[in-house]
Amino acid sequence: MTAFLQFVVDVLALGGAYALMALGLVIVYGILRLVNFAYGELIMVTGYTLFLLGGSPLPWILMAAVAVLMAVLTGIVTDHVAFRPVRTKSVTAVLITSFAFSTLLQNAALLLISPRPRSVPLPDIFSETVRLGGVVTPVRNLITIATAVVLLALFALLMKRSVLGLAMRAAAANFTMARMLGVPANLVITSAFAISGLLAGIVALLWLGRSASVAPGIGLEPLLVAFIATVIGGMRSLEGAVIGGFLLAFIDTSLNHLLPQDLLKFRDAFTFTAVILILLWRPEGLIRGPAAGRRT
Amino acid sequence: MPWRRLALSFLLLALPVLALAGAVQFAQSLLLERIAITLCINLVLVVGLQVFMGNAGILSFAHIGFMGVGAYAAAVLSIPAQMKGMALPDLYPLLEGVAVAPMVAILAGVAVAALVAALVSYPLMRLSDAAAVITSFALLVVLHTLMLHWSAVTNGPRTLFGLPKATTLGLAAGAALAVIAVALLFKESRTGLLLRASRDDEIAAGAIGVRIPALRWRAFVLSAAIAALGGGLWGHFITSFSPKAFYLKETFVVLGMLVIGGASTVSGAVLGTFLVTLAFEGLRAVEGALNRAQLFAGQVVGLTEVALACAMILFLILRPGGLLPTAEIGALRRTRPESDR
């Protein structure tokens, strides 16, 4: 029973973080049908902002807010540098510009800060553990679950109830038609990038809590997680991204428990094999989104 | 494309490679020889990527993974038996006594990579667009994870050493020329033509009976085999390497060369390789000079990548198709009116 409870908490905590990461990626994909390869670097930017603010006397929560704001700004800059100039041209062109932008940011961090990991300030609560019904778990896991629940609820409310959410859903369903009916395209796209940055920034705070340090390559794992979760869940569906995130966390955690020690280091290979099998069964992902509209 | 233009394209593309090889032979400079061999291996890799990306129109990240498969498979076979105990302490006993000529080992590496590609890629070829790109990215990660942890044949994350230095300029240039010829022929073959039709309009091509996944699969396997050839040649040129050589950094460089030149044409791939390799060597020299002069407190790293990234973004904004977006170099000279073709 305890083992089961432990498993559930692990899956929920990991899944909450994965779901938020996937959501941040898919909100841009849903509207533009373009993948943002520089998504992982939003997490890197958050980390480095925290590192740079580390010596200041500000309270942590303010530093965190500034760091998340930087992620939002970086998201908007990504749109202007890597997407807006090429988004009407070809899918491949945008994939490559965002990949190039990601490399640019990473190497800028290498060049200007350091190739070595830098420690980030974190509140003490992140390193504490609690006992919960016989299960010992880091408080960070509980914070992650709570954050995921709150953010997912807020996000659902925004998408279903606000005018901006309506405009974004309309743009995702049929971009051209939405524009004709007076939805301002650039505003919707910029908002999508800003929300993507917000989600990435908040996830980054939780993600950095695991290692308490930031390095130029830190964005790769979250990027992969978001990729795989969205592909499993269905690239065009927001619910799909969330389900994909939790499913991926379930696969990962199960493999952690089931695999013998000497195979554990190959866990990623097993996870991706499972993903390929899911795609064989359902090439469009588990949940189908709105019918494919055309970009711009 | 008529045969004459195809032959002309090949000759025009072969000319700079031959001229470079000749000039290096004449100059007898070790530095120049190193740059020329690097360039020829880059040609193999970039043109190999063009075979899949140019014809199928799908960005593939897995390419460099197959370069790694080729390099490691060749290395396991070609490291001399007396070196194996040191270079690969955990090697399976069955392979311990095996040491074949480097050429044979490189070809075996090509076969291994083609086999791996044939097995894993078939289900993936049904996917299009972003899902295809993302799964190819995942495939790169899987291959990298395997190289990083399968200590028995890769020595894990540590450097694998002891490969015989077998890649001469002649061999590398010959391989580059052969790959350019194969890429041109594949592009004009029935498979290549149908594949390009599916690239331009997937639905229309499917409607006239093109079996898109099967065609993409052929291009992918050929492309992976060429990548493995590049990997084998590179391994026997550099003689020691670790798994991180076959990851995102190399992917980015190869992709940059292809995109700047033009992914749809073999000529574009060749042109991009020449331009970027030369620019890269220049920037690397600047980086080295900066580090030697110690103008800055720390080491200057990543400058070359920053420059290449900026160049790529600018290129894609201004010329999304690359320098040679549609026509091969042999077809550029005479542009006759439409009715004449």
What does this structure look like?
The complex is a heterodimer of chains A (296) and B (341). Chain A is mainly α and 296 residues long. Chain A has a single domain, classed as ABC transporter involved in vitamin B12 uptake, BtuC (Orthogonal Bundle). Chain A contains twelve helices and four strands. Chain A has helices spanning 2-32, 39-53, 60-83, 91-112, 139-161, 163-173, 175-180, 185-211, 220-233, 238-258, 261-264, 267-281, and strands spanning 118-119, 129-132, 135-138, 213-214. In chain A, strands 1-4 form a two-stranded antiparallel ribbon. A two-stranded antiparallel sheet of chain A has the order 2-3. Chain A is globular and about 60 Å long. Chain B has one domain (3-245). In chain B, 73% of the residues lie in helices and 0% in strands. Chain B is globular, with a radius of gyration of 20 Å. At the A-B interface, helix 4, helix 9 and helix 12 of A face helix 6, helix 7, helix 13 and helix 15 of B.
